[in-house]
Amino acid sequence: MTASDPALVTPRLILRGWRVEDAPAALAIYGHASVARWLSPAMDRVPDLGAMRLLLQQWIAETERMALPAGRWAIERRDDGHLIGGAILLPLPPGNEDLEIGWQLAPDAWGHGYASETTSAVARWAFQHDVDEIFAVVRPGNTRAAATVRRNGMHWVGETGKYFGLTLQVFRLRPADLDETAPEAQLPPAYGANGGV
């Protein structure tokens, strides 16, 4: 069994394994400059359908080799089956000891709460597999992502250059942080009192 099989199901979404035939819908996401500019590790916009197919084949093979709960998921809306993004739970370099949670959504899916719903589903999956904490790494200036991780109870723990050779804001989530009644998580200093959003 791999992380993306069985699927993770939320009220509005299905997170399932990637398929090569997802390439056209995936290209609309990963080929979009507004999505690619925030990816960590840094990744150029996927240029064409052939490159997207190759990348999906790599992601599928990578997920099959990973130990649970790590993996990659395609994000589908339940009501219409439309593929709107991707989600990850991957070991962070250099030591592969920490797990990174992340998501990428098509721009037309932004602002509907899908990122928060995805983050919650993947985090719960991780915590069901004896993981004590997971991390999100956010590029400075990506206030949308920082707001999403905070809405999911993640706490800012600092800034680092140790991941992917980039300066990144690091947020941490532990099982108790999923309690929706907990106070809002601490902000990085640069985000100001209103979170910069």
Can you put this structure into words, describing what you see?
The model has no long low-confidence stretch (mean pLDDT 85). The chain has helices at residues 23-30, 33-36, 49-65, 114-127, 143-151; strands at 8-9, 13-16, 71-77, 83-91, 99-105, 134-138, 155-160, 168-173. It has a five-stranded antiparallel beta sheet with strand order 1-2-3-4-5, with helices on both faces. Strands 6-8-7 form a three-stranded antiparallel beta sheet, covered by helices on one side. A hairpin with a 7-residue loop joins strand 7 and strand 8 (168-173). The chain has five helices and eight strands; from the N terminus they run ββαααβββαβαββ. It has 197 residues and is an alpha+beta fold. Helix 1 crosses helix 3 (49-65).
